[in-house]
Recover the amino acids of this structure.
Protein backbone atom coordinates (compact mmCIF):
# COMPACT_ATOMS: atom_id res chain seq x y z
CA UNK A 1 0.00 0.00 0.00
CA UNK A 2 1.34 3.40 -0.92
CA UNK A 3 -0.93 6.33 -0.30
CA UNK A 4 -1.67 8.99 -2.89
CA UNK A 5 -1.23 12.50 -1.54
CA UNK A 6 -4.03 14.84 -2.63
CA UNK A 7 -3.84 18.55 -1.79
CA UNK A 8 -7.02 20.61 -1.78
CA UNK A 9 -6.33 24.26 -2.69
CA UNK A 10 -8.27 27.29 -3.93
CA UNK A 11 -6.43 30.58 -3.64
CA UNK A 12 -9.47 32.43 -2.35
CA UNK A 13 -10.71 31.72 1.16
CA UNK A 14 -14.21 30.59 1.98
CA UNK A 15 -14.94 28.62 -1.19
CA UNK A 16 -15.18 25.27 0.63
CA UNK A 17 -11.68 23.74 0.83
CA UNK A 18 -12.12 22.44 4.37
CA UNK A 19 -15.65 21.19 3.69
CA UNK A 20 -14.36 19.41 0.59
CA UNK A 21 -11.43 17.85 2.46
CA UNK A 22 -13.65 16.63 5.31
CA UNK A 23 -16.29 15.20 2.99
CA UNK A 24 -13.85 13.47 0.65
CA UNK A 25 -12.13 11.96 3.69
CA UNK A 26 -15.47 10.65 4.98
CA UNK A 27 -16.55 9.39 1.54
CA UNK A 28 -13.26 7.55 0.97
CA UNK A 29 -13.29 6.08 4.49
CA UNK A 30 -16.91 4.96 4.04
CA UNK A 31 -15.78 3.05 0.94
CA UNK A 32 -13.25 1.21 3.09
CA UNK A 33 -10.10 3.21 2.29
CA UNK A 34 -7.47 4.08 4.87
CA UNK A 35 -7.44 7.86 4.99
CA UNK A 36 -5.47 10.44 6.91
CA UNK A 37 -6.20 14.13 6.53
CA UNK A 38 -3.79 16.89 7.44
CA UNK A 39 -4.87 20.42 8.28
CA UNK A 40 -2.07 22.57 6.82
CA UNK A 41 -3.77 25.84 7.78
CA UNK A 42 -1.52 26.56 10.76
CA UNK A 43 -2.89 29.33 12.96
CA UNK A 44 -6.40 29.04 11.51
CA UNK A 45 -7.30 25.42 12.09
CA UNK A 46 -10.79 24.31 11.13
CA UNK A 47 -10.74 20.79 9.76
CA UNK A 48 -11.08 19.49 13.34
CA UNK A 49 -14.40 21.30 13.96
CA UNK A 50 -15.85 20.42 10.56
CA UNK A 51 -15.06 16.75 11.26
CA UNK A 52 -16.36 17.06 14.84
CA UNK A 53 -13.02 16.02 16.37
CA UNK A 54 -12.05 19.28 18.11
CA UNK A 55 -12.33 17.88 21.64
CA UNK A 56 -9.87 15.10 21.07
CA UNK A 57 -6.77 17.12 20.10
CA UNK A 58 -3.68 16.59 22.21
CA UNK A 59 -0.80 17.03 19.76
CA UNK A 60 -0.69 18.79 16.41
CA UNK A 61 1.28 19.04 13.15
CA UNK A 62 3.90 21.40 14.60
CA UNK A 63 4.43 19.10 17.61
CA UNK A 64 5.25 16.28 15.18
CA UNK A 65 7.56 18.43 13.06
CA UNK A 66 9.41 19.76 16.11
CA UNK A 67 9.74 16.30 17.65
CA UNK A 68 7.57 16.82 20.76
CA UNK A 69 5.55 13.70 19.97
CA UNK A 70 5.58 10.71 17.68
CA UNK A 71 3.53 10.87 14.49
CA UNK A 72 1.03 8.28 15.76
CA UNK A 73 0.32 10.37 18.86
CA UNK A 74 -0.85 13.33 16.74
CA UNK A 75 -3.20 11.21 14.64
CA UNK A 76 -6.75 11.51 15.96
CA UNK A 77 -8.82 8.45 15.22
CA UNK A 78 -12.38 9.10 14.07
CA UNK A 79 -14.53 6.70 16.08
CA UNK A 80 -17.22 6.66 13.38
CA UNK A 81 -14.70 5.45 10.78
CA UNK A 82 -11.86 3.40 12.24
CA UNK A 83 -9.75 3.96 9.11
CA UNK A 84 -10.03 7.77 9.20
CA UNK A 85 -7.44 9.90 11.00
CA UNK A 86 -6.83 13.62 11.36
CA UNK A 87 -3.57 15.42 12.01
CA UNK A 88 -4.72 18.85 13.22
CA UNK A 89 -2.96 22.16 12.58
CA UNK A 90 -1.36 24.08 15.44
CA UNK A 91 -3.53 27.01 16.46
CA UNK A 92 -0.99 29.23 18.21
CA UNK A 93 1.85 29.11 15.69
CA UNK A 94 2.35 30.49 12.20
CA UNK A 95 2.90 28.97 8.78
CA UNK A 96 6.67 29.32 9.02
CA UNK A 97 6.79 26.67 11.77
CA UNK A 98 6.62 24.06 9.01
CA UNK A 99 8.67 23.80 5.80
CA UNK A 100 7.86 22.09 2.47
CA UNK A 101 10.58 19.55 3.33
CA UNK A 102 8.84 18.75 6.66
CA UNK A 103 5.60 18.04 4.79
CA UNK A 104 7.35 15.73 2.33
CA UNK A 105 9.03 13.79 5.16
CA UNK A 106 5.75 13.54 7.12
CA UNK A 107 3.83 12.20 4.11
CA UNK A 108 6.59 9.72 3.26
CA UNK A 109 6.22 8.33 6.78
CA UNK A 110 2.43 8.05 6.37
CA UNK A 111 2.38 6.61 2.84
CA UNK A 112 3.07 2.91 3.56
CA UNK A 113 0.10 2.50 5.95
CA UNK A 114 -2.61 4.44 4.11
CA UNK A 115 -4.49 4.67 0.82
CA UNK A 116 -5.11 8.41 0.78
CA UNK A 117 -3.49 11.42 2.42
CA UNK A 118 -5.64 14.54 2.03
CA UNK A 119 -4.04 17.91 2.76
CA UNK A 120 -6.27 20.93 3.42
CA UNK A 121 -4.27 23.91 2.10
CA UNK A 122 -4.64 27.40 3.56
CA UNK A 123 -5.96 30.18 1.31
CA UNK A 124 -3.39 32.42 -0.33
CA UNK A 125 -0.28 31.74 -2.37
CA UNK A 126 2.38 32.05 0.34
CA UNK A 127 4.31 29.65 2.56
CA UNK A 128 1.28 27.68 3.80
CA UNK A 129 0.22 26.92 0.23
CA UNK A 130 3.79 25.94 -0.71
CA UNK A 131 3.89 23.58 2.29
CA UNK A 132 0.59 22.02 1.29
CA UNK A 133 1.51 21.31 -2.34
CA UNK A 134 5.10 20.14 -1.72
CA UNK A 135 4.23 16.45 -1.14
CA UNK A 136 1.22 16.33 -3.48
CA UNK A 137 0.78 13.66 -6.17
CA UNK A 138 -2.46 15.26 -7.26
CA UNK A 139 -4.22 18.58 -6.67
CA UNK A 140 -7.85 19.46 -6.36
CA UNK A 141 -8.65 23.11 -7.00
CA UNK A 142 -11.92 24.20 -5.40
CA UNK A 143 -13.77 27.20 -6.79
CA UNK A 144 -17.22 28.79 -6.77
CA UNK A 145 -19.05 29.96 -9.91
CA UNK A 146 -18.21 33.56 -9.11
CA UNK A 147 -15.67 36.02 -10.60
CA UNK A 148 -13.21 36.40 -7.70
CA UNK A 149 -13.11 32.67 -6.90
CA UNK A 150 -12.54 31.74 -10.57
CA UNK A 151 -9.80 34.33 -10.95
CA UNK A 152 -7.96 33.11 -7.83
CA UNK A 153 -8.36 29.48 -8.93
CA UNK A 154 -6.67 30.41 -12.21
CA UNK A 155 -3.73 31.93 -10.30
CA UNK A 156 -3.38 28.79 -8.19
CA UNK A 157 -3.50 26.56 -11.27
CA UNK A 158 -0.78 28.70 -12.86
CA UNK A 159 1.42 28.32 -9.75
CA UNK A 160 0.81 24.56 -9.64
CA UNK A 161 1.87 24.31 -13.30
CA UNK A 162 4.94 26.47 -12.65
CA UNK A 163 5.98 24.12 -9.80
CA UNK A 164 5.38 21.18 -12.13
CA UNK A 165 2.97 19.69 -9.63
CA UNK A 166 -0.29 18.13 -10.61
CA UNK A 167 -2.31 17.19 -12.48
CA UNK A 168 -4.71 19.76 -11.02
CA UNK A 169 -8.39 18.85 -11.22
CA UNK A 170 -11.33 21.16 -10.71
CA UNK A 171 -14.18 21.05 -8.18
CA UNK A 172 -16.93 23.62 -8.69
CA UNK A 173 -18.62 24.09 -5.33
CA UNK A 174 -21.89 25.86 -4.46
CA UNK A 175 -23.63 25.66 -7.82
CA UNK A 176 -27.05 27.22 -7.49
CA UNK A 177 -29.37 25.80 -10.20
CA UNK A 178 -31.99 28.54 -9.71
CA UNK A 179 -29.49 31.32 -10.34
CA UNK A 180 -28.03 29.46 -13.32
CA UNK A 181 -31.45 29.04 -14.86
CA UNK A 182 -32.07 32.75 -14.49
CA UNK A 183 -28.78 33.50 -16.24
CA UNK A 184 -27.33 35.04 -13.10
CA UNK A 185 -24.66 32.45 -12.33
CA UNK A 186 -21.82 31.06 -14.43
CA UNK A 187 -22.60 27.50 -15.52
CA UNK A 188 -20.22 24.67 -14.71
CA UNK A 189 -19.40 24.56 -18.44
CA UNK A 190 -18.45 28.28 -18.34
CA UNK A 191 -16.12 27.77 -15.37
CA UNK A 192 -14.64 24.63 -16.91
CA UNK A 193 -14.03 26.45 -20.21
CA UNK A 194 -12.37 29.44 -18.49
CA UNK A 195 -10.05 27.41 -16.27
CA UNK A 196 -9.39 24.63 -18.81
CA UNK A 197 -8.36 21.82 -16.47
CA UNK A 198 -10.01 18.44 -15.96
CA UNK A 199 -13.31 18.64 -14.07
CA UNK A 200 -13.72 16.11 -11.26
CA UNK A 201 -16.74 17.41 -9.35
CA UNK A 202 -19.72 19.73 -9.26
CA UNK A 203 -21.27 20.28 -5.84
CA UNK A 204 -24.66 21.99 -5.47
CA UNK A 205 -25.27 24.71 -2.93
CA UNK A 206 -27.05 22.85 -0.16
CA UNK A 207 -28.10 24.14 3.26
CA UNK A 208 -27.46 20.69 4.71
CA UNK A 209 -23.72 21.45 4.36
CA UNK A 210 -24.05 24.18 7.01
CA UNK A 211 -26.36 22.09 9.19
CA UNK A 212 -23.97 19.16 9.12
CA UNK A 213 -20.93 21.27 9.91
CA UNK A 214 -22.89 22.81 12.82
CA UNK A 215 -23.12 19.27 14.15
CA UNK A 216 -19.59 18.22 13.25
CA UNK A 217 -20.93 15.51 10.96
CA UNK A 218 -19.81 16.09 7.34
CA UNK A 219 -22.69 15.94 4.87
CA UNK A 220 -21.10 12.96 3.09
CA UNK A 221 -22.15 10.87 6.12
CA UNK A 222 -25.66 11.30 4.78
CA UNK A 223 -25.77 9.96 1.24
CA UNK A 224 -29.35 11.25 0.77
CA UNK A 225 -28.29 14.87 0.63
CA UNK A 226 -27.42 16.21 -2.81
CA UNK A 227 -24.10 17.72 -1.71
CA UNK A 228 -23.26 14.49 0.12
CA UNK A 229 -23.91 12.47 -3.03
CA UNK A 230 -21.71 14.87 -5.04
CA UNK A 231 -18.77 14.30 -2.65
CA UNK A 232 -19.23 10.52 -2.85
CA UNK A 233 -19.10 10.83 -6.65
CA UNK A 234 -15.83 12.77 -6.46
CA UNK A 235 -14.35 10.08 -4.19
CA UNK A 236 -15.30 7.42 -6.73
CA UNK A 237 -13.78 9.46 -9.58
CA UNK A 238 -10.56 9.76 -7.55
CA UNK A 239 -10.51 5.96 -7.57
CA UNK A 240 -10.71 5.95 -11.35
CA UNK A 241 -14.42 5.17 -11.68
CA UNK A 242 -16.41 6.84 -14.45
CA UNK A 243 -19.32 8.53 -12.70
CA UNK A 244 -21.71 10.81 -14.63
CA UNK A 245 -22.02 14.39 -13.34
CA UNK A 246 -25.22 15.45 -11.58
CA UNK A 247 -27.36 17.62 -13.84
CA UNK A 248 -27.47 20.79 -11.78
CA UNK A 249 -27.54 23.60 -14.22
CA UNK A 250 -29.46 22.58 -17.30
CA UNK A 251 -31.60 25.39 -18.60
CA UNK A 252 -35.10 24.08 -19.18
CA UNK A 253 -36.53 26.94 -21.23
CA UNK A 254 -37.12 26.64 -24.96
CA UNK A 255 -34.16 28.85 -25.79
CA UNK A 256 -31.93 26.83 -23.48
CA UNK A 257 -32.88 23.67 -25.32
CA UNK A 258 -32.29 25.26 -28.72
CA UNK A 259 -28.96 26.58 -27.52
CA UNK A 260 -27.91 23.10 -26.42
CA UNK A 261 -29.00 21.67 -29.78
CA UNK A 262 -26.93 24.16 -31.73
CA UNK A 263 -23.99 24.07 -29.38
CA UNK A 264 -23.71 20.66 -27.74
CA UNK A 265 -21.44 20.70 -24.75
CA UNK A 266 -22.08 24.39 -24.23
CA UNK A 267 -24.38 25.82 -21.54
CA UNK B 1 -21.64 32.00 -33.86
CA UNK B 2 -21.30 31.70 -30.11
CA UNK B 3 -21.99 35.39 -29.65
CA UNK B 4 -25.08 35.08 -31.84
CA UNK B 5 -26.44 32.24 -29.69
CA UNK B 6 -25.70 34.18 -26.55
CA UNK B 7 -27.70 37.05 -28.02
CA UNK B 8 -30.56 34.74 -29.03
CA UNK B 9 -30.74 33.19 -25.57
CA UNK B 10 -30.53 36.60 -23.96
CA UNK B 11 -27.47 35.42 -22.08
CA UNK B 12 -25.22 38.35 -22.91
CA UNK B 13 -27.42 40.81 -21.02
CA UNK B 14 -27.64 38.62 -17.94
CA UNK B 15 -25.02 38.96 -15.23
CA UNK B 16 -23.57 35.50 -15.89
CA UNK B 17 -22.73 36.53 -19.47
CA UNK B 18 -21.02 39.67 -18.19
CA UNK B 19 -19.09 37.64 -15.62
CA UNK B 20 -17.78 35.33 -18.32
CA UNK B 21 -16.73 38.12 -20.69
CA UNK B 22 -15.00 40.05 -17.89
CA UNK B 23 -13.23 36.94 -16.64
CA UNK B 24 -11.94 36.11 -20.12
CA UNK B 25 -10.13 39.47 -20.29
CA UNK B 26 -8.91 39.39 -16.69
CA UNK B 27 -7.49 35.88 -17.04
CA UNK B 28 -5.57 36.78 -20.21
CA UNK B 29 -4.00 39.73 -18.38
CA UNK B 30 -3.23 37.63 -15.28
CA UNK B 31 -1.72 34.76 -17.25
CA UNK B 32 0.41 36.80 -19.60
CA UNK B 33 1.22 39.74 -17.35
CA UNK B 34 0.56 41.86 -20.44
CA UNK B 35 -1.63 44.94 -20.08
CA UNK B 36 -3.67 46.43 -22.93
CA UNK B 37 -1.25 49.35 -22.92
CA UNK B 38 1.82 47.11 -23.25
CA UNK B 39 0.08 45.18 -26.02
CA UNK B 40 -0.53 48.36 -28.03
CA UNK B 41 3.12 49.42 -27.61
CA UNK B 42 4.19 45.95 -28.75
CA UNK B 43 2.02 46.42 -31.81
CA UNK B 44 3.55 49.80 -32.67
CA UNK B 45 7.11 48.49 -32.40
CA UNK B 46 6.25 45.37 -34.39
CA UNK B 47 4.89 47.55 -37.20
CA UNK B 48 8.08 49.63 -37.21
CA UNK B 49 10.34 46.58 -37.48
CA UNK B 50 8.32 44.85 -40.18
CA UNK B 51 8.01 48.04 -42.20
CA UNK B 52 11.79 48.11 -42.53
CA UNK B 53 11.61 44.96 -44.63
CA UNK B 54 8.22 44.89 -46.32
CA UNK B 55 5.47 47.35 -47.06
CA UNK B 56 2.40 46.87 -44.89
CA UNK B 57 -0.72 48.79 -44.04
CA UNK B 58 -0.27 49.76 -40.36
CA UNK B 59 -3.98 50.41 -39.87
CA UNK B 60 -4.89 46.83 -40.85
CA UNK B 61 -2.49 45.14 -38.40
CA UNK B 62 -4.22 43.17 -35.69
CA UNK B 63 -2.49 41.78 -32.59
CA UNK B 64 -4.63 39.58 -30.37
CA UNK B 65 -4.16 36.95 -27.67
CA UNK B 66 -5.99 33.74 -28.45
CA UNK B 67 -6.65 30.98 -25.93
CA UNK B 68 -6.01 27.34 -26.56
CA UNK B 69 -6.82 25.49 -23.34
CA UNK B 70 -4.38 26.91 -20.78
CA UNK B 71 -1.98 28.05 -23.53
CA UNK B 72 -1.95 31.65 -24.68
CA UNK B 73 -1.07 32.41 -28.27
CA UNK B 74 -0.07 35.82 -29.55
CA UNK B 75 -1.67 36.20 -32.95
CA UNK B 76 -0.44 38.80 -35.42
CA UNK B 77 -2.45 39.40 -38.57
CA UNK B 78 -0.35 41.59 -40.84
CA UNK B 79 -1.72 42.06 -44.38
CA UNK B 80 1.06 42.84 -46.86
CA UNK B 81 0.44 45.45 -49.50
CA UNK B 82 0.15 43.87 -52.92
CA UNK B 83 2.48 44.93 -55.77
CA UNK B 84 -0.38 46.55 -57.65
CA UNK B 85 -1.39 48.67 -54.69
CA UNK B 86 2.21 49.64 -54.12
CA UNK B 87 2.55 50.77 -57.73
CA UNK B 88 -0.72 52.62 -57.70
CA UNK B 89 0.37 54.28 -54.52
CA UNK B 90 3.67 56.05 -54.49
CA UNK B 91 7.08 55.59 -56.09
CA UNK B 92 7.77 53.08 -58.83
CA UNK B 93 11.16 51.50 -59.16
Amino acid sequence: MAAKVVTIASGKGGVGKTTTTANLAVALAADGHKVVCIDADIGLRNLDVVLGLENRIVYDLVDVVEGRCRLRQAMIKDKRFPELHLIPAAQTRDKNSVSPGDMIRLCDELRPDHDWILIDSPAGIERGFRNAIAPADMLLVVTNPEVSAVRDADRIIGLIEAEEKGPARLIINRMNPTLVKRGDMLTSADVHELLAIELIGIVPEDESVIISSNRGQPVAMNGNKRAGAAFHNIARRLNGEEVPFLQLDSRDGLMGRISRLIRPGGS
Amino acid sequence: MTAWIDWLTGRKDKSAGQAKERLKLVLVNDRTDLTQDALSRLKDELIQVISRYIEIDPSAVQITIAQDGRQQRLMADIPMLSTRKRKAGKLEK
